[in-house]
Amino acid sequence: MFSKILIANRGEIALRILRACRELGIKTVAVHSTADEDAMHVRLADEAVCIGPPASRDSYLNVAAILSAATITGAEAIHPGYGFLSENADFAETVEAHGLTFIGPTAEHIRMMGDKITAKTTMQMLGVPLVPGSDGELTSLEEAREVADKVGYPVLIKAAAGGGGRGMKVAQTADDLEDAWKMARAEARAAFGNDAVYLEKYMDRPRHIELQILGDNYGNVVHFGERDCSLQRRHQKLLEEAGSPALTAEQRDAIGQTATQALSKMGYRNAGTLEFLYQDGQFCFIEMNTRLQVEHPVTEMVCDVDLVREQIRLAAGEQLGYTQKDISFSGHAIECRINAEDPDNFTPCPGTVAVYHPPGGLGVRVDSALYTGYRVPPFYDSMIAKLIVHAPTREQAIARMQRALDEFVVEGIKTVIPLHRRILEDPEFQKGDYTIHWLEQFTAKPH
Question: Which of 191, 138, 139, 137 is nearest to 165 (CA)?
């Protein structure tokens, strides 16, 4: 086991990793920008190193500074968390080249799954079902028209690189295709420096279902069930559930077996998440995240497993030590992402937290690095906390989340807590009757 780990991230995920390290008896190194000098993970780490000014490109994306910090502090491994460098294959490769351990998958698998066209081709070869569409990158508008005519409108033009909803445009009819093609390529070029795009059939009422997996260095792969991440705005998740109210245990087992068999054949190691669109009883693979997910706590709550601890164990060369039959699912969990945003128009609202009082009680968990007096900087993602609840049934979990949201006090800045209250009160949500398009329609309604 490692004696010291450098945490190449910030905010609640840095604190989350730090806590797992503490429980394993591992010393921690926090890196931080000048804007994060007073951050909680910096205060609690055994050592802290400033790696640059506030801009991410000069600090949390500064590979040379991070590696220097690891070297001077004697860290043996680097945990990237999520975001920033977590899915950067070159970074993973460089970490290993410097004699350190990258706590995550191999650079080869990060690179393979980072290109969505390669990821889809690989998964198709391994027997994982796909959304109907082009076999690979589209080389021309004419080819896009041919594929669209074959799969039927509406269709979705998607960037091969990147994510977060950028480089994605819908063509409802053949008349819309040229504009969607041009806009998707231009947006992809601007965002990722790569204008390669492909085409998929646009599913009109799917759910976003993802499957959490872990693999060790010895070919063993297991899954920890599904998360329903359908409540999104602009392709950004806001609320997640485990398990999905749309799936049965038999459907979970079937897609889980398909996924674990595929990843075992790949020799995949450490944590990963396969993302699917699910409609009319059919799963269609869309992409894989080769890292820890923001919403991993809902899986932890229903499976009683510390996924970060498992990541560290596996990176240290340990075997899983259990099989699929050893993993059980208990109750229901819901996570609400608490963003420092206006709840009506989602404008970011950085500033000083005048009062911070997190909720508590049975089955309530808050992952956050906030404290009273903390200044939320304007330079990074607006998520400031994750509120997670667990209960024996979905109905009880909803009631517990409503109670916890009512207890949650964050004053001095605006947050999306009022929006979450509205969502939890909605009859359609309470019935579990929603798709990936539901939230944007819901937020467009007057209230």
Answer: 191
Across 246-293, where does the E strand assignment appear? 270-279, 282-289
Is there a catalytic annotation at residue 291? yes
Q: Which residues, at least 6 apart from 400, have a Cβ–Cβ distance to it below 8 Å? A: 361, 363, 364, 389, 390, 391
Catalytic entry in 252, 269, 291, 337: 291
Q: How far apart are CA 188 and CA 196, in angstroms?
A: 8
Q: Minimal CA–CA distance to 152: which of 167, 128, 171, 179? A: 171
State the helix-helix crossing angle for 296-303 and 307-315, rounded to 10 degrees.
Answer: 100
Alpha-carbon distance of 338 to 240, in angstroms, equals 12
Q: At what angle do helices 11-23 and 307-315 cross, to 10 degrees?
A: 70
Distance CA 295, CA 383 (A): 12
Angle 177-192/141-151 helices, nearest 10 degrees? 120
In single-letter form, the type of residue at position 81 comes to G
Rounded to 5°, angle at Cα 424 from 442 and 428: 55
Chain-centroid distance of CA 416 in Å reads 19
CB-based contacts of 348, cutoff 8 Å, min separation 6: 340, 341, 378, 382
DSSP H/E element including 4: strand 4-7
Q: Which tokens is 189 given?
A: 């070029």
The overall longest dimension of the chain from CA atoms, in Å, is 61
291: which DSSP letter?
A: S
Of 1, 78, 6, nearest to 47 by C-alpha is 6
Which residue, among 104, 100, 99, has the nearest Cα to 79 in the 3D structure? Answer: 104
Tens of pLDDT along the chain (447 residues) come to 999 999 999 999 999 999 999 999 999 999 999 999 999 999 999 999 999 999 999 999 999 999 999 999 999 999 999 999 999 999 999 999 999 999 999 999 999 999 888 998 999 999 999 989 998 899 999 999 999 999 999 999 999 886 667 889 999 999 999 999 999 999 999 988 899 999 999 988 999 999 999 999 999 999 999 999 999 988 889 999 999 999 999 999 999 999 999 999 999 999 999 999 999 899 999 899 999 999 999 999 999 999 999 999 999 999 999 999 999 999 999 999 999 999 999 999 999 999 999 999 999 999 999 999 999 999 999 999 999 999 999 999 999 999 999 999 999 999 999 999 999 999 999 999 999 999 999 999 988
Half-sphere exposure of 192 (CA within 13 A, CB side): 23
Cβ atoms 216, 106 nearer than 8 A: no
**Residue that the structure tokens 């950004």 belong to:** 236
